[in-house]
Amino acid sequence: MLKKLVTWFLFRKVKNAAGEMEAKGLSITKVCATIIGIMQAVEFASPHFGHPINFGQNIYMALASLGGIALKEGVDRSAPKE
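RE: above sequence
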């Protein structure tokens, strides 16, 4: 069950020869977004455990940039417009 959830959430969806969507390969954009979410949750929860953790803004910007570049490169411009 957990494997299906991870596959659905983190893998990129591509069309197979039959035209059906299937999970294939990790989506760097989704991985970056998930990491940013986990980092923000850790920043929020860490003061309640007595050890505040703060990630620098540069780390967030680097992950967002990496995710944005991966998203731009992942768009198939040769596909017909539907």
